[in-house]
Amino acid sequence: MDAGTTGIDAVPITTWQFVTGFVLAGVVVLVLVVLGVRRAGRSRYRSLRILARLGATGVVAVVLPASALVGVNAGLDYLRTVGDVAGTGPVEGIGVAQLLLTRKVPATGQVVQIPIPGTASHFAARPTVVWVPPAWYERPRPQLPVIVLLHGTPGRPVDWVDSGGAADVANAWAAQHHGVAPILVMPDVNGTYTADSECVDTPTAKVETYLTRDVPRVVSRLLGTRPPGPSWAVAGLSEGGSCAAMLALRHPTVFATFGDYAGLLGPRVGDSNGGVPDTVAGLFGGSQTAFAAHDPATLLAANRAPGIAGWFEAGDADTDPAAAAHTLSAVATRAGVENRLVIVPGGGHDFDLFSQALSDSYPWLVGRVSVPVP
Residue 278 region, left (φ>0) first, then alpha (ψ -120 to 50), else beta? Predict the structure, then answer.
């Protein structure tokens, strides 16, 4: 837990404990309203009866969606504190102006939110979250490499910091290497919390273009990073893992390295490796050719991107992603594509696995993007 998180913001919401308390509070309110109806005189009965009905409706309307959300949260270990739910958690970041005007080298890396417009893609993205290492503040400012981290669905760009421990991993590395580490860039891949773009271009959202053109252009110019290519890597969790593999294989001049953490075999509209016909229809306008052009196994087998490398990691209790990791690693190996495969015993589809995967692969990613170590 972040040392700066105190008070009620730090209260954990593990499994069903938080929603249980929420439900009990709603029930107490409803009981008090009903008791008020029973004790009131006739002149007040009608209005209180209406209030009681509204109270019951309100409790049901709020508790049922909350229960569903916490059901997702229990599976992913997604929102861990009251602060995360309220939006007052430890990661709010500094402004772009403050980032650019800061002259003093901080002791640890800093988090900043950067709005990146969809100039080429016209994708209406949420602000990108960026972690900048202490070395970036040195003068003259060094050209640092970049690791792009993609969230899943449901999800937010800040997930990698709030729940995935990305800043902790990067700060630990920077502390051991004179403040030097890759810049972490965490862009939006879906536009909304529950959307599922699979990072492809569709008539409604050109997310692939956003991630491979708009994001690199703004980040490299604003932060003075190394140019996209060998010094840029892309990694992601769940949907973001599939996206990372697909994007690197389709755009090796932007990303030469990828990390696929608990992703499926490729773009899918559901939660399993099946459902290809629905995916072809829903994401690619019925074009099998377009689907194949975004299929990591097909792209790996072709091996048209010399020098690219990937890291596959999943939990053995997470059936479809684990199967996908085995399959894609085998295809990559046969095609002569450098790769690493890690299957975590007992690992599930949650942030314990996602954060471990980043921690496991981070030194390898750093080596691939060639961080200059003083």
Answer: alpha
